[in-house]
Design brief:
Elements: H1 5-10, H2 14-72
Length: 77
Amino acid sequence: MTLTPEQFNKLVTRDEFNKLVEDVGEIKGDVKKILTAVDGIAKKHETFEQELASNQAAHDRFQVDIDKLKVHARLQA
C-alpha cells in the first residue's frame, strides 16, 4: 500500500511523538495538582457542614435554656 503525499504529510515523526509524550506528562502533573486542590476544598466543605450542624444544635440547646430562664424569672417566654 502506497501513501499519497497528503497521507505522508500526516504521519507523525519520532520527535513530534516524543514532544507529545512530554506534554502529556506535564498535563498529567497539572491534573494531579488540580485534583489535590479540589480534594482540599471538598474536605473543607465537609468540615464546614459538620461545624454548622454542631453550632445549630448548640444554638437550639441555648435557646431552650434561655426560654426556661425567662419562665423562671417571670419574663415573657
